[in-house]
Amino acid sequence: MPRISYAQEGTEAEGATEVYASLKAGFGMVPNLVKLVGHSGPVTQAMGTVLDVYFNRLALDARLREIAYLTVTRQNECPYCTGHHTMFAQKAGMSEEEMALLGESGLSSPLFTPAEKAVIRFALETTKHVKASDESLMALKKAFTLPQVVEIAFVVASANFIQRIGKNFDAELEM
Q1: Which of 41, 69, 90, 165 is the most interior residue, by most CB within 10 Å?
Q2: How far apart are CA 50 and CA 74, in angstroms?
Q3: How far is 47 from 67, CA to CA, in rounded Å?
Q4: Predicted TM-score of the model (pTM)
Q5: Which residue ranges form the domains of the chain, and what is each CATH number?
Q6: pLDDT value at position 13?
Q7: Are 31 and 22 in contact (CB under 8 A)?
């Protein structure tokens, strides 16, 4: 049970309706995470923008996005985000074994390329310490273009942002 009520469709704040409609058109539903912030129009609009950028505007490969996102969600122990992003990672071609290794153990796994390990390390360090080490950032810059580095940082920051809301309010995975 969530710690605050969901702003169900039809009861959302002024300014949130367009986001609800867009998400329903794109996903077939309004995610519970969005319903938690649906009490504030400006916050719902900001969340809608973050989700739109994540799912529709990034050039970053879907597998890399999900490696970054799931590394954060496993570190933060957010069941809501893990539930959703496990599905997205499967669609991006990740195996159950790979997903289970996202975290410290992934850094030594032969299942991940050096570039993917750089993403895992950056996601872990940023989640734990906010600022990644110079070595971690250098590894990203060696493996990726600057636009990709920025998009990886966006994914990691977005994951942490979203999970701070979802986990604090106990978002429930939709059935």
Answers
A1: 69
A2: 20
A3: 21
A4: 0.95
A5: 17-57 (no CATH), 62-168 (1.20.1290.10)
A6: 98
A7: no
> How many other C-beta atoms can be found within 10 angstroms of the C-beta atom of residue 170?
14
- Name the band, by pLDDT with cuts 50, 70 and 90, for residue 175: confident
pLDDT in tens, 81-113: 999 999 999 999 999 999 999 999 999 999 999
Token pair 């985000």 is at which residue?
81
Q: Where do the H-state alpha helices sit in 92-145?
A: 96-100, 114-129, 134-143
> 118 near 126, Cβ under 8 Å?
no
Average pLDDT in the 154-168 region? 97
Contact 137, 122 (CB under 8 A): yes
